[in-house]
Write a structure and sequence with these properties.
By secondary structure, the chain is of the alpha/beta class. The chain is built from eleven helices and eleven strands. The strands form two sheets. Strands 3-6-7-2-8-1-9-10-11 form a nine-stranded mixed β-sheet, with helices on both faces. It has a two-stranded antiparallel ribbon with strand order 4-5. Strand 10, helix 8 and strand 11 form a beta-alpha-beta unit. Helix 1 packs across helix 11 and helix 5 runs parallel beside helix 6. The longest helix is centred in the C-terminal third of the chain and has 21 residues. Bound molecules: iron/sulfur cluster (2 copies). One iron/sulfur cluster binds next to helix 4.
């Protein structure tokens, strides 16, 4: 089973849930797909056994073969190519904007002159290791690089189907989140009972409903704020899987990079129950 942990906004406790759920179960693989700011390793302190660079293919145009027909610009959905036509006196040219390129390969495939070859551009690294009995994989996007979905896909290429896989997804509701959660059987949305938490939860719910991934909610710092998240979940038949109250002790552990279940062992049971609950909900959904 693949369970992703996501949130409409950062700072809700998404990584806390992913890490502590992983530490409460057996035969687990944890993938940190929050590749812009991975931090699960701070809690798990994995021993990294393998590191490799992640690349995307970027077009390189042979100006001798190119006749500036413009086909590559037409097919590029990401506006990563501009074509400057010949004006009769000067030869035209093609400009590639590597930071906009998603490496989809459409331009090189469809160039009528076969003037485009692909060159590899490094976008980050993937590291693989083990931590406290958990198989650990994370991606780290290069500083200044914006193209996180291809790196997320390369982290997810390492999914081990023989294990319970937990994916720590990036925060938000845009392409990187979809790239991270789309293979999951179930998604845990982590939120907090504040107007900001509710606003971003509603957006995240819309995304998951669109891509048809079943989900439930964990309310972190559940005894602060108001009851609007509860009412929203009740009104929309969204299961609340777990509530974690605001607790100075938990905040202290977090600030020291210590997993919650390591010091407050009673939470292991709560996370196991959360997992059982997801299993039951998934079985019901499949019937
Ligand atoms: S499709 Fe090929 S030939 Fe046409 S402008 Fe692009 S690179 Fe040049
Ligand atoms: S590889 Fe895809 S995204 Fe990149 S320039 Fe070509 S068509 Fe655009």
């Amino acid at each position: 089973m693949i369970i992703s942990v996501a949130s409409g906004k950062g700072g809700t406790g998404k990584t806390t849930i992913a890490v502590n759920l992983a530490l409460s179960l057996r035969n687990v693989q944890l993938l940190d797909c929050d590749v812009e700011e991975p931090n699960a390793h701070i809690f798990l302190k994995p021993e990294i056994k393998e590191t490799f660079s992640a690349f995307i293919p970027i077009p390189e145009v042979d100006s001798e073969k190119c006749n500036t027909c413009g086909k590559c610009r037409e097919v590029c959905a990401y506006h990563a190519i501009a074509v400057i036509p010949s004006n009769g006196e000067t030869k035209g040219s093609v400009l590639v904007f590597p930071h906009l390129c998603h490496g989809c390969g459409a331009c090189s495939l469809l160039c009528p002159q076969k003037a485009i070859k692909e060159v590899h551009k490094e976008i980050g690294i993937v590291e693989i290791g083990t931590a406290k009995g958990i198989q650990f994989v994370h991606g780290k996007l290069n500083v200044g690089e914006v193209m996180s979905p291809p790196l997320i896909r390369q982290v997810e290429d390492r999914i081990d189907p023989t294990k319970t896989v937990i994916i720590d997804a990036p925060p938000g509701t845009s392409c990187p989140v979809i790239a991270a959660v789309k293979k999951s059987d179930y998604c845990i949305l982590v939120t907090e009972p504040t107007p900001f938490g509710l606003n971003d939860l509603v957006l995240a719910v819309e995304v998951l409903r669109k891509i048809r991934i079943p989900f439930g909610v964990v309310i972190n710092r559940s005894d602060i704020g108001d009851d609007k998240v509860d009412k929203y979940c009740q009104g929309n038949k969204i299961p609340i899987l777990l509530r974690i109250p605001f607790d100075k002790g938990i905040a202290l552990l977090y600030s020291r990079g210590i997993p919650l279940v390591q010091e407050k062992v009673e939470y292991k049971d709560k996370f196991r129950k959360l997992f059982d609950c997801i299993n039951k909900l998934s079985v019901l959904k499949a019937k």
